[in-house]
Amino acid sequence: MRRVARAAGITPMAIYHHFEDRKTLLTRITEHEFARLLECMQARPLKGSAADRVVSVMEGYIDYALERPRLFDYVFVQPRPGARQFPGDFRRRHSPTLNVVADVVADTMKEGFLRKDDVWEVAFALWAHVHGYVVMYRAGRFEGSEKQFRALVRRSMRRFLHGLAA
């Protein structure tokens, strides 16, 4: 709390006028970051082929991860109290961000591009696939530029989707 107060230019005690404790502060930060992630995931228009729409949503996830790496780590990489858990929290639509992925996946199944399957498991698998790439990239496991990395992930997502194609 002292570091946060110092960074905000206020006294450590002043921060407690806004947040009851550290847990409350971190919860608020997490809520804000999920809203920011949702904005990134919805920033691109959903047009084109079924695969294009799925890739577009997931590119928003990559944008967020690379623009806000330390917050991304806190929200998605480190264990965190209150983190949503698969499958229950997601099936109950408690994750606005995975809801977007699941909705696009469901649409592509209805259109016949993807074969009928468990929408939530497919959405979670797609998220995990892209998440793995992002974590490996951030750990320095890829040569080349960010542009080359993004192109690789796009190709990989299309391979993944075509493996699930009807």
Describe this structure in words.
- The protein has helices at residues 2-8, 12-15, 22-42, 50-67, 69-77, 88-91, 96-110, 119-138, 146-163.
- The protein is an all-alpha fold and 166 residues long.
- The chain has one domain: Tetracycline Repressor, domain 2 (Orthogonal Bundle).
- Helix 4 crosses helix 5 (69-77) and helix 4 runs antiparallel to helix 7.
- The longest helix has 21 residues, at 22-42.
- The N and C termini lie far apart (52 Å).
Order of helices and strands: HHHHHHHHH
The amount of beta strand, in percent, is under 5%
CATH arch. level architecture? Orthogonal Bundle
- Cα end-to-end separation: 52 Å
CATH class: Mainly Alpha
Which sheet architecture does the biggest sheet show?
Answer: none
Shape: globular
Radius of gyration: 18 Å
Total separate domains: 1
CATH topology type: Tetracycline Repressor, domain 2
Alpha-beta content class? mainly alpha
Number of DSSP helical runs: 9
Low-confidence stretches: none
Task: Provide mean pLDDT, rounded.
Answer: 89
Helix content: 55-70%
CATH superfamily: Tetracycline Repressor, domain 2
Number of strand elements? 0
